[in-house]
Amino acid sequence: MATAYERIADDLRQSIRTGQLAPGDRLPSEAKLADQYRRSLPTVREALRVLQAEGLLIKDHGRGNFVRRPRTFVQRTNTRHQWEKDRAREPLTKRASTGATEHDTGLEMPDLVFHAAYREVKATAELAKAFGVDEGTDLVERSYRTRYRVETAPFTLVTSYLVRDLVKENPDLLDETKEPWPGGTQNQLYTVGVELGRIEERVTARPPTSEEAEELELPPGTAVLALRKTSFDINGRAVEISDVLLPGDRTEMIFTTPLERW
Questions:
Q1: Which sign does the torsion angle of CA 103, 109, 114, 117 carry?
Q2: Which CATH code for domain 74-254?
Q3: Report field, pTM of the whole predicted structure over 0.85
Q4: Which residues share a beta bridge with 141?
């Protein structure tokens, strides 16, 4: 049998799903809800906490509880890598017309706000092992944030690493002002003679740190998907490593595996 707070949560949830409470609407105050349902304030607060954890409500301290606006959904499939490779040698005009984020979200370039930051770092023991280089080797660390123009949270948190000696032949690959780069990383590597042969992706789920939850604007209790992407050239050498953090409430991962016929 449902408890009092569960019945209140069910009623409010139904109002949200049927559109009686629309995205952005403010709910009555907790005191008014307590009067409406003839229940105590702690019972009402527990019902609201449940809906906040489900991502249906967001609490703005000092203003009240609001129906959360749905975030843009991202559908990330492993077929995106071949799509990117096919574009790597296309003319600039075609590469500049769209990118991977548009591919994953269905949005267009004018819909997006993009930010990139580069810095040089030394390879940690973990990254050195992954790249097959000495610990302390110079790397280029690149941080990317892309968001829908009408939203405030980025789709993902991305940190990418390149071995500096591999890309220094093209000074533009050390310059963050050249971003967003038409054709992405695969075209960047193509400019220094590197062709990718395979991409390995490892995905785990974990709770976000407080900083990650704040930047991604995650509802309480939402997990993140932590993706480590390693790109190998046609000779099996690791040439780029990316750590991608994806919000669990608005990301779908799709893996398609072609099977040879008997």
A1: positive
A2: 3.40.1410.10
A3: no
A4: 119, 161
